[in-house]
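Bit of a strange request maybe. I'm writing a small parser for C-alpha cell strings and I need a real example to test against, not something I typed by hand. Could someone generate the C-alpha cells for this chain?
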Amino acid sequence: MVKDTKKGYQCPLEATMNIIGGKYKGIIIGHLINKTLRYNELQKLIPQATPKMLIQQLKELEADGIINRKLYPVVPPKTEYSLSKRGETLIPIIIELNKWGINYLKEENIPCKYLDEINKNKND
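Reply from user aminoacidic:
Good idea to test on real output. This should exercise your parser:
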C-alpha cells in the first residue's frame, strides 16, 4: 500500500510491513518467485482470496514497485504479473518467512496443504 511519504514512518520495519504485510501480498510474492503468472493462475493458487481482494493486493504491490503488470491487448484481455527488480530483493525474506512458517506448523502439529504436498512428492 503506497503510503503518504510526507508523513513518513516510525521505523523501517513499519515501511516493510506496510508493503508486504497485506493479507495475500507475501503469498503473491512467493508465487511469483522466478515465475510470470497470469491473473487466473494466481487466483487458482490463492483460492481463499476473493477476486476483489486479489486485484486490490496486486494493484498495491504494483503501485509500490514490487511487481510488474503487463497487459496484452487481446480479446479476452491477458494480464501477466512478475516480480520487479525491487520485488526480487524480497525473495530471501519471503523464503525465510516460509521456512519459519514450516517450522512453526511442524512444532505445533498444525495441518497445512503445502506441507502435505511436499511430503507427498518426497514419497513418490
